[in-house]
Amino acid sequence: MAIATKLSLTLLFLSYSTTIIFAAANDTGFVGKVDPKSLNLNKKRTLSHFRFYWHDILSGTNYTAATIVPALPKYNTTSSFGMVNIIDNPLTVGPNLTSKTVGRAEGFYALTSQSQATLLMVMNFALSEGKYNGSTITIVGRNVAYNEFKEMPVVGGSGVFKFATGYADARTQFFDPETGDATTEYNVYVFHY
Ligand SMILES: *[C@@H]1O[C@H](CO)[C@@H](O)[C@H](O)[C@H]1NC(C)=O
Ligand SMILES: *[C@@H]1O[C@H](CO)[C@@H](O)[C@H](O)[C@H]1NC(C)=O
Ligand SMILES: *[C@@H]1O[C@H](CO)[C@@H](O)[C@H](O)[C@H]1NC(C)=O
Ligand SMILES: *[C@@H]1O[C@H](CO)[C@@H](O)[C@H](O)[C@H]1NC(C)=O
Ligand SMILES: *[C@@H]1O[C@H](CO)[C@@H](O)[C@H](O)[C@H]1NC(C)=O
């Protein structure tokens, strides 16, 4: 009996203090509760699979990627540690650059290992096809260049991809060690509303 009373008093106090906290937050206009329905987020999540080819073109006059920070001299030829490339790379539906463009990969990658070619990828896939036009998928992850499969997390997105989660599997399709030009196949698995 005494324990039950104590418990209900505790619960009463907890709900009271919760109310106070929400009210205080609401009073400032800083944060409030939202019904998911009002943001169209009450629908079932869809798991979509996108496949496209990412073209990293460093050579020629119409390059899409460029070094904005050179490698640290000590690591210049081994791991390119410290190098940063900025990218605005076309994403095409087939491996050939002349195939249909379905979006762009905007962002950068940084060489972040002292011992091997490993990249920190930070990029937005800005898609331009159909209902995905204008929506973005954001990738932040580790890419070990010489692994056959490189898995990187989808950390979010915008438009159709609000609240998105998932991952991307990348596989090198073509690489020219002379120029650094590369074509990578991306398979992106993403949960979205
Ligand atoms: C605060 O509460 C009022 C009344 O319930 C509501 O209309 C308003 O949208 C809330 N503010 C925020 C920021 O959630
Ligand atoms: C580079 O792009 C311009 C403009 O789109 C085009 O006219 C030119 O032929 C391209 N050059 C090469 C080498 O592809
Ligand atoms: C790094 O390597 C490139 C190409 O191999 C060379 O052109 C450049 O001078 C080197 N930079 C340094 C700082 O050694
Ligand atoms: C890409 O397509 C163009 C034009 O359709 C063609 O000439 C070229 O051989 C193709 N390249 C490859 C690697 O298949
Ligand atoms: C995507 O949207 C932009 C801006 O609304 C529009 O200009 C463009 O034609 C659209 N692209 C496709 C492929 O529908």
TrEMBL record:
A cellular component term, taken from the record's GO annotations: apoplast
Signal peptide residue numbers: 1-23
Keyword Secreted: yes
GO BP terms in the entry: phenylpropanoid biosynthetic process
Main location: secreted
Gene3D superfamilies associated with the record: Allene oxide cyclase-like (2.40.480.10)
Subcellular location, record wording: Secreted, Extracellular space, Apoplast
Keywords assigned by UniProt, alphabetized: Apoplast, Secreted, Signal
Alphabetical list of Pfam families matching this protein: Dirigent (PF03018)
Database matches in InterPro entries: Allene_oxi_cyc_Dirigent, Dirigent
Role, per record: Dirigent proteins impart stereoselectivity on the phenoxy radical-coupling reaction, yielding optically active lignans from two molecules of coniferyl alcohol in the biosynthesis of lignans, flavonolignans, and alkaloids and thus plays a central role in plant secondary metabolism.
Subunit architecture: Homodimer.
Family per similarity comment: Belongs to the plant dirigent protein family.
UniProt protein name: Dirigent protein
